[in-house]
Amino acid sequence: MVWWFLVIYLFGIIIQSSEQACSTGYYTYEGQCYPCSPGHYCSDGIDEYVCLAGEYSDGWTQSYCSTCASGYYSSYAGSDHCNKCPIGFSCPRRDQEPVPCNPGQYAPNEGYASCSACSQGYYSANSSATECLPCPRGYYCPTTDMLPIMCPPGTYQLSTSSTSCSKCYDGQFTVENGSVSCNVCPGGFYCPTADQLPIACPIGTYSTEGQTVCTKCSSGQYNTFLNSTRCYQCPPGHYCDDPKICPKPCPAGTYNSSPGYSSCYNTCGTCPFITRLFDCNSCTQAKISNCTEGQTVPRFVCSWN
Ligand SMILES: *[C@@H]1O[C@H](CO)[C@@H](O)[C@H](O)[C@H]1NC(C)=O
Ligand SMILES: *[C@@H]1O[C@H](CO)[C@@H](O)[C@H](O)[C@H]1NC(C)=O
Ligand SMILES: *[C@@H]1O[C@H](CO)[C@@H](O)[C@H](O)[C@H]1NC(C)=O
Ligand SMILES: *[C@@H]1O[C@H](CO)[C@@H](O)[C@H](O)[C@H]1NC(C)=O
Q1: Please, where in the chain does CATH 2.10.50.10 lie?
Q2: What is the pTM of this model?
Q3: Which positions are tagged coiled coil (predicted)?
């Protein structure tokens, strides 16, 4: 009895479904066929099924759902369309909400499945960036996900889109942040370090522009000013044994006929034995013609008579 009942029961279901099933794209309800609604699919003519998140069906009487295209998403089941991923966002998963681009990335248009990375020398410091900006002049961008950093004193960057700053050349300096160039160390000064202001050359030394050190006056020269660009020749009748001190007159009994000496090397003779007296200073003979210390005396002033 039970066996017969079961066979008849199953047979009845098959008869009923084969008789009452609608065509695909429709579903059956109380014996009637209804068109499958958007966001759903009707693959067997019996039931209406909901499209999953990440899928859609965009019209009536669909028998299947389509997967969202790359760069589109539907985050809810039953969608009749997919949304284009917005600008500044990516949609790596079609069944989830868009994800903002991380700093260092950007999405310049709608419909990006993944964000693009900023190129070296460009940056986006915020999330949801729609563009990467070039690192400005005077700045460097060691990473793409941080704000540009000003070139520190002693360095510079003339170009945009740089990942580093350049050091000033020797003999140049800049004491500011964010420099686009370095300054040449002026004459009379020296720049031992590029991140400090020029230092005046001390007395007895000099420099031309662009120097890291000052040069000591050579033997027989002097200067007595700070920040000198040159040294001066010791004048005739004088000697310069210390470049920091004014020329000193040759002591009595000695002389220099030419400039640029560090000592007085010529000794005056006594007048009767000298026939040609060159620039004699303070010699006994010079005193005859009233030459004072350090003064030069014309030739032949001291004569035999
Ligand atoms: C980045 O975010 C900061 C702080 O919210 C804001 O002040 C700045 O304008 C943003 N920059 C860009 C390029 O959107
Ligand atoms: C340069 O920037 C640093 C760090 O921000 C700061 O400490 C320094 O005072 C700045 N120097 C100048 C000259 O502005
Ligand atoms: C450099 O020398 C000139 C001329 O002697 C002087 O007027 C000026 O004040 C000096 N500057 C410095 C920084 O020493
Ligand atoms: C030197 O000077 C003194 C005093 O001024 C003067 O009497 C004398 O005649 C001068 N001698 C010569 C050689 O000019």
Answers
A1: 135-184, 185-233
A2: 0.71
A3: none
Backbone dihedral angles phi then psi of residue 69, each to the nearest 5 degrees? -70, 165
Residue type, 118: C
Q: pLDDT by residue (tens digit) across 217-258?
A: 999 998 888 899 999 998 887 889 999 888 887 776 677 778
Amino acid letter for position 20:
Q
Tell me, using a 6 A CB cutoff, whether residue 289 lines ligand 4: yes
pLDDT at 133 over 80: yes
d(CA 170, CA 35): 83
pLDDT at 115 over 50: yes
What one-character-per-residue DSSP string does 155-213 give?
Answer: EE--SSS-SS-EEPPTTEE--SSS-SS-EEPPTTEE-SSTTS--EEPPTTEE--SS-SS
Mean pLDDT across the chain, nearest whole number?
84
Paired sense of beta strands 221-222 and 232-233, if any: antiparallel
Pocket test for ligand 3, best of 201, 224, 227 (most atoms within 8 A of CB): 227
Q: What is the CA radius of gyration of the chain?
A: 49
Residue 192 and residue 194: Cα distance in Å, rounded?
Answer: 7
- Specify the DSSP element, H or E, that contains 134: strand 133-134
Pair 85, 71: CB distance under 8 Å: yes
Backbone angles phi, psi at 133, to 5 degrees: -100, 145
The class of domain 185-233 in CATH terms is: mainly beta
Band (20; pLDDT cuts 50, 70, 90): low
**Residue 299: its pLDDT value, please?**
36
The finding on whether 197 has its CB within 6 A of some atom of ligand 3 is no
Atom of ligand 2 nearest to the CA of 150: 2
pLDDT at 37 over 60: yes
**Annotation: CATH topology of 135-184:** Tumor Necrosis Factor Receptor, subunit A; domain 2 (2.10.50)
Looking at residue 220, the DSSP 8-state letter turns out to be T
